[in-house]
Write a structure and sequence with these properties.
The complex is a heterotrimer of chains A (387), B (263) and C (294). With 387 residues, chain A is mostly helical. Chain A has 17 helices and 2 strands. The chains are: A mainly alpha (387), B alpha/beta (263), C mainly alpha (294). Chains in contact: A-B, A-C, B-C.
Chain lengths: 387, 263, 294
């Protein structure tokens, strides 16, 4: 009797498993035909879909910036530079499986470059300044990446930690050029007249330097995420995933693991460079204290909270980095702490969150939600199959 | 084909136990009894209701092809793998849920696959780890092990990673003996060893069983050698007991040998 | 010449603290294949606990004992509560957990004790010995105490691991978890004890560094975690003796950098040394055939 049951249940299991690979390959082969493709209103072509999302996000950003006050506009700038860097780190850690605690230092490269280039009589156009900052950081990233490609896990973490602790020393060593402990104040470019005009016609709000920089930050963020999203969905992104998950198989199928790791590092360094440039504008100061190991760890927190490998997660995590401290600072001050002490509470929370996420939900916020959705869908599919 | 094999299993194993009981030698009391033991790795079933007994003062060999569940059986008995069903009785005590660390104090020594030498420690330290749980142990006990295995005695101060495969096997058996086990679980001791060394080790096992009343549950893929030294044979296939019988009779059953033992 | 001698001596002394800290990292790495990036922050916390006691009128020695004891407790609790679940899992998860502890504990120090620098009065004078009319700036009663303290700890650890049954059980657990369990060793307890001991050694390193620099901020161990890691990697990360030699070599090398090139480049120099070692001799300076495990 029991023997009769076994083959039956085995064949049922077989059917279930033979179904799973088909959906998996379908999803990975035609990245455009995502699981959502069937009922989504979004176009099937990846590029088109991402463009549409980009436009929607841009509209959303304008609405957000015009319906909130300047204080909030400034906060959005902070979210933007965290998110740009976290997006790059997501690609590196989430997609390619390499950890970096050196992205704060890479942001410093972008930030100091921007500060120096803007601190002249006739500064170059901002776009050019940003591109130079990105290029320079990419070069540094390539150097770091070549070393990093041969390391993994704790070794890579330790090496990039050393980078984060060591690199700010340069700012102190070349204090004539880089301003030493005090850092460099950033002379932000004036907002152009057309911007003032557009804002006035759009919302009637008065334009200001803060608003101008908020728009620049958001524009940088959107462009970065658009590029990163396309990259991650492309063949390149799949190769990175293969390098992470199937090291041996990838190598056997002719993928040069080292080269791909270096490329991933360069791309994420470029994002960090841009993030540093935006930081310079938003904070108006580049100083060693702005690029400590704590910055790198905060970025890591952002991508882990959001869910490794998800850009949306990186964005949500970055927003938490900016808005959580405000909430906690108020709480801390009500507990009679001085402002600096109260500000530290948020880092206690970040650390605890990092640990808790790793212990209880290693997939992060977005990942956990996705997993839950997938499970639900699978359950429903199973129910349908049974019925 | 597979179904008929599976069908035969319960009947054969029941009959097998009966046979060995009724066999030529008087029934020895069981030192280890395994009843309906099942285990799984995730969705994959590795053991499916295994029942067997290791009799006191005898060698019981568990045979079967790669993936038959032999190693999992030993790991489940000693608690490294948690069973999904069934129980393990050691000297009349149910030890199914006992922690791994407690097994050795209850009289079970498990020498895992791949020999389990701690390569970073010296030969002498490896032996001492084996007796740690007993508190202070007299030097004479170590000397006895070294007498049994003169080859490792010469190298007692060296780190174990310098030992050859055969020497490692001797070391782990010696280490297991220091725990004064009632039953010794041996996982593929012949793996990767020259036939001459295998014969030497099996002969020594036989001697220990015959002279000191040790009981052995031996897992082997090398069925021919194992049956030559064992009293009883248990054949596993796909996580189930296919047959249990007197070792000599198993070795003589040509159909069975071809179907499951590959010689 | 005098400066060279001074820098070398100073390097050996600071290096001995790096060595102790690296040793703590190696103890943990050996048994759990985890680099405890939170070790610096943990040591900073225990040092601040000691400072609080000393400020409240207790002697340095009471502070030291309490710091070491709290290190013991923190190390054990950390292993039991947050490390145990990630042991043997993906290595990235364990790395992130220790980093989470790092940031949380460091911030906790600021919340509890304030963000400002605190003066740390060394137990002995930091004024260098005089030989004739030359002053050996780096050799003072306090630095001699540092050397002796580190030496004592190392002798104690060697004695524990070489000559005691507990030490043998700990080593067996570190090198062969499963075999050790089958042989009746309570591996879980040994791992907890390993983390606790490592935290004690780390706490001592924190107290010694604090006495040398005389001022401590909540972040004062940031560079020590890097230097300790570099020293441990120099020695191969698996070898306690390697960690000690690595610590001394690094201490002297960084002392020269500090003396001849400037304080600001010390961190970068450590980075360069680390990267060169990792790329050229990944198994450490003293590796023979065994390479770093992938």
């Amino acid at each position: 009797m029991s023997d009769l049951q076994t083959p039956a249940s085995a064949s049922a299991a077989g059917a279930a498993t033979s179904e799973a690979p088909t959906t998996a390959t379908a999803a990975s082969n035609a990245s455009s035909a995502q699981a959502t493709g069937g009922r989504s209103f979004l176009p099937r072509n990846t590029l088109l879909r991402h463009l549409l999302v980009l436009v929607l996000c841009a509209v959303g950003a304008v609405l957000l910036l015009e319906s909130t006050d300047l204080g909030f506009n400034a906060q959005v700038g902070y979210v933007a530079f965290y998110a740009i860097a976290a997006g790059g780190l997501t690609l590196l850690t989430g997609l390619n499986g390499q950890i970096s605690l050196g992205h704060g230092a890479l942001m410093a490269v972008g930030g100091y470059t921007t500060a120096l280039l803007l601190d002249v009589e006739e500064p170059l156009p901002l776009v050019v300044v940003f591109l130079i900052a990105v290029a320079l950081t990419s070069v540094v990233g390539a150097i770091v990446g070549v070393a990093a490609a041969r390391l993994h896990g704790p070794y890579l973490a330790g090496a990039t930690l050393a980078l984060a602790v060591g690199l700010p020393g340069l700012a102190l060593h070349f204090d004539d050029l880089l301003g030493g402990e005090q850092g460099l104040t950033v002379s932000t470019p004036d907002r152009p007249d057309w911007f003032t005009e557009i804002i006035r016609t759009l919302s009637g709000n008065p334009a200001s330097g803060v608003k101008w920089i908020a728009y620049i930050s958001v524009a940088c963020l959107l462009v970065t995420y658009f590029l990163l999203a396309n990259l991650m969905r492309s063949r390149v992104g799949r190769t990175w995933r293969a390098v992470r998950d199937q090291e041996v198989a990838a190598e056997l199928s002719g993928i040069n693991l080292g080269a791909w790791r270096v490329v991933a590092f360069v791309v994420s360094a470029a994002a960090a460079g841009l993030a540093g440039a935006v930081l310079a504008l938003v904070v108006r100061l580049t100083a060693p204290t702005a690029f400590t190991i704590v910055l790198s760890l905060s970025l890591l927190t952002a991508i882990v909270i959001g869910g490794l490998g998800s850009l949306l997660g990186a964005l949500i995590g970055s927003a938490l980095l900016v808005f959580l401290p405000r909430l906690l600072r108020d709480a801390g001050e009500s507990l009679d702490m001085d402002a600096a002490q109260a500000a530290e509470i948020s880092y206690v929370v970040y650390g605890v969150i990092l640990v808790l996420v790793m212990l209880f939900a290693p997939a992060g916020l977005v990942g956990s939600v996705r997993l839950a959705l997938m499970k639900q869908r699978a359950r429903r599919a199973a129910g349908r199959a049974r019925g | 084909m597979a179904e008929t094999g599976a069908h035969g299993s319960t009947a054969a194993s029941a009959a097998g136990v009966g046979l060995s009981k009724g066999g030529g030698t008087a029934t020895a009391p069981a030192v280890l009894e395994v009843e309906g033991l099942s285990a799984a790795y995730g969705p994959v079933r590795a053991l499916d209701g295994v029942t067997l007994r290791a009799e006191s003062g005898r060698i019981t060999a568990v045979l079967g092809a790669n993936g038959a569940g032999k190693t999992t059986l030993l790991r489940t008995i000693s608690g490294l793998v948690r069973p999904t069903a069934g129980r393990v009785v050691l000297n009349g005590e149910d030890v199914t849920r006992s922690p791994v660390e407690a097994m050795v104090t209850k009289g079970m020594s498990h020498v895992p696959e791949g020999r389990g030498v701690i390569a970073e420690l010296t030969v002498d330290e490896n032996l001492r780890v084996g007796s740690l749980f007993r508190g202070k142990v007299g030097q004479d006990e170590f000397d006895r092990v070294y007498d049994l295995f003169p080859r490792i005695a010469e190298r007692r101060g060296q780190t174990a990673h310098t030992l050859s495969g055969g020497e490692r096997q001797m070391l782990v058996i010696g280490r297991a003996l220091l725990a004064r086990p009632k039953v010794l679980l041996l996982d593929e001791p012949s793996l990767g060893l020259a036939p001459r060394i295998v014969a030497q080790i099996f002969a020594l096992l036989r001697k220990l069983v015959d002279t000191e009343g040790l009981s052995v549950l031996l897992v082997e893929q090398n069925a021919r050698s194992a049956l030559s030294v064992a009293d009883t044979g248990v054949v596993l296939n796909l996580g189930r007991v296919v047959v249990t019988d007197d070792a000599a009779r198993l070795a003589g059953d040509e159909d069975l040998r071809h179907a499951y033992l590959g010689f | 010449m005098q400066e060279f001698v001074n820098l070398t001596l100073g390097g050996v002394i600071t290096g001995s603290v790096y060595a102790a800290f690296a040793l703590a990292l190696v103890l943990i790495w050996r048994s759990t294949r985890i680099v405890n990036f939170a070790q610096g922050a943990m040591a900073a916390l225990t040092t601040f606990i000691a400072i609080a006691l000393i400020d409240a009128g207790q002697s340095y020695w009471v502070g030291l004992v309490v710091a070491l004891l709290s290190g013991l407790v923190i190390g054990a609790v950390v292993e039991r509560v947050v490390i145990r679940p990630v042991e043997g899992g993906p290595e990235l998860n364990a790395v992130i957990v220790t980093l989470g502890l790092f940031i949380a504990i460091q911030a906790l120090i600021s919340v509890l004790f304030g963000v400002n620098q605190r003066a740390f009065v060394p137990p002995f004078s930091n004024i260098g010995f005089r030989i004739g009319d030359t002053t050996l700036g780096s050799l003072s009663p306090n630095t001699v105490y540092t050397l002796i303290a580190v030496l004592l700890v190392m002798v104690a650890l060697i004695a524990l691991f070489r000559f005691t049954r507990l030490g043998l059980a700990m080593r067996a657990s570190a090198f062969g978890q499963e075999v050790a369990r089958l042989l009746g060793v309570r591996v879980g307890r040994m791992l907890t004890l390993g983390w606790a001991l490592a935290a004690v050694v780390g706490s001592l390193a924190g107290m010694l560094i604090a006495a040398e620099t005389a001022f401590v901020a909540p972040t004062f161990m940031d560079s020590l975690i890097v230097f300790g890691f570099v020293a441990a990697v120099l020695g191969g990360l698996d070898s306690p003796i390697g960690a000690v030699v690595g610590g001394l070599v690094l201490g002297v090398a960084l002392s020269y950098v500090r003396g001849y090139l400037g304080d600001t480049l010390v961190g970068l120099a450590a980075l360069v040394i680390l990267v060169v070692v990792l790329l050229v001799r990944p198994g450490g300076l003293f590796s023979t055939t065994q390479t770093r495990r992938a």
